[in-house]
Each structure stands twice: as C-alpha cells, then as structure tokens.
C-alpha cells in the first residue's frame, strides 16, 4: 500500500470509528475524533523532516569514514579538472547499502525511491562537514612518506620500520603488533592507486611471512584495486586510518602457512 493510500485509509477508518462513537457519546467523541485526525495529518506533514533527520543520523555514524573517502576519491587531473567519479560511486554505494535498508525498516522505502537525490545530498553535506587533518602536512617525497606512515603506525602501538629501498620485494614498511606482522606499501599519489600495488603488496606479504597486508595512500583506489583487495584480503587505507589499525591474524589470502604457526 502506498503512503498516500495508507493515509487515506487511516483517515477513513478514524472517521468511521469516530462517527460511530459519536452516536453513543455525542460531542466529546466528535472532539476526540477531530484531535486524532489532526494528529494523523500532523504526523504526515512532519514525515519529510523525520526522513531527513533519519538519513543525517545514519550518515553521521560514519561521518569520518565518509569524509576520508571523499578526500581520497577526489583528485585534480593533469588538466586542472576536479575528478570526483570515485567519490560519487562511493557515496551511492554507502547510500544503497547502509541508508536504504534502515529507511525500509522505518517505513520510508517509497520515500527513499522518490528522494534518492536528496539522500545523496544529505550524505554529501555530512561528509563535507568533517574537518580532517591538513593534507599539506603529509610529506610529498615518497621515501619521507614511507617514514611518515611508519611513524603513524608506531604511534598506534606497532613496532614499525621502513624497509631498505633495495631488496624490499614490494614492502615499504613492516610492522608487528602482538605477534601479528603487517606488510605495507605506501603510495603518495595525486590520483587513485591501481591494482598493481595490491598485487605487489600481496606478493610482499608472502615474502615477509606477513599476516596482514595493506596499501596506504593519500589518494583513493581504482575500482579494479578495490575488487582485487576484496579477493586477496589486502587492506586499502588512507594514512589517517593507521591510527586505529589493529592486528588481525591471517587476513591475507594465499600467504605462507608458516605465518600462522
């Protein structure tokens, strides 16, 4: 039943019930019926505001992650154009997988279909409202960026060190925490990182007997990189994610069995 049909049905049966009650109780029943009808109409009128509030609340639960993804997935190309395709996909994915199921549970499924663009706009506002650390503080030089990532991991409790440039087999940082070894490749890019980095760090994790592997970047990741990440267990992180990174055993698929012994 559509929202409008449901409203009409509620009004109709309220009037019917109220009319029947008025035959027995007179004016008090009519007054009560009028009050109920007013409440039903007010609830309906207030529905758009409740819809927006619910979407904002759901988005705010993930505000920092959304803000990070927004910054990662937007970049300026060689011609000076702002490219935000990756963020638009990420925003729609979040709305579809996180927002819509909750709206359906609250009886807003039809509203969500009609107000899809409004949902995206609300998510955009929440993501844009979060103040993130200044990206200009991040080292521009690749080697310095590797050391920067190692420092962020040490601050989070990892015993981390940058590897030597030669013989690292694709690992820029190796870190340990509670017996779990993490192998990291660091990419200070001006555009999304491709799946080659995922392949390289997955191979490096096997070489270093790593339990976890990650590509860390200031930029976002291509759809191909994200797909390969899901298949290999390689984490795709922004360097700000390192502060909350905790050890998880055997997240890299296809690594050496000796790593779990």
Automatic annotation (TrEMBL):
Signal peptide: none annotated. InterPro entries: Restrct_endonuc-II-like, Restrct_endonuc_IV_Mrr, tRNA_endonuc-like_dom_sf, Type_IV_Methyl-Rstrct_Enzyme. Pfam families: Mrr_cat. Keywords: Membrane, Transmembrane, Transmembrane helix. The chain crosses the membrane at residues 12-42. Residues 143-245 form the Restriction endonuclease type IV Mrr domain. This is Restriction endonuclease type IV Mrr domain-containing protein. It comes from Methylobacterium iners.
């Amino acid at each position: 039943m559509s929202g409008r049909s449901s409203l009409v049905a509620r009004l109709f049966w309220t009037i019917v019930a109220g009319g029947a009650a008025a035959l027995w109780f007179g004016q008090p029943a009519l007054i009560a019926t009028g009050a109920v009808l007013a409440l039903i109409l007010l609830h309906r009128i207030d529905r758009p505001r409740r819809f927006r509030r619910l979407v904002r609340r759901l988005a705010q639960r993930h505000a920092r992650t959304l803000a990070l993804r927004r910054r990662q997935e937007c970049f300026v190309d060689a011609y000076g154009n702002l490219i935000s395709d990756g963020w638009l996909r990420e925003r729609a994915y979040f709305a579809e997988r996180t927002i819509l199921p909750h709206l359906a549970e609250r009886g807003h499924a039809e509203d969500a279909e009609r107000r899809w663009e409004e949902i995206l706009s609300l998510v955009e506002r929440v993501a844009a409202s979060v103040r993130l650390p200044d990206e200009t503080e991040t080292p521009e030089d690749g080697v310095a960026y590797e050391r920067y990532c190692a420092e962020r991991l040490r601050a989070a409790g990892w015993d981390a060190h940058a590897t030597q440039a030669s013989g690292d087999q694709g690992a820029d940082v190796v870190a340990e925490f509670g017996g779990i070894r993490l192998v990291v490749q660091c990419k200070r890019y001006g555009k999304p990182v491709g799946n080659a980095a995922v392949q390289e760090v997955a191979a490096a994790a096997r070489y270093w007997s790593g339990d976890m592997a990650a590509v860390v970047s200031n930029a976002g990741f291509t759809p191909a990189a994200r797909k390969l990440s899901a298949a290999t267990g390689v984490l795709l992180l922004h360097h700000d994610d390192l502060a909350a990174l905790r050890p998880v055993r055997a997240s890299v698929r296809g690594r050496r069995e000796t790593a779990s012994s």
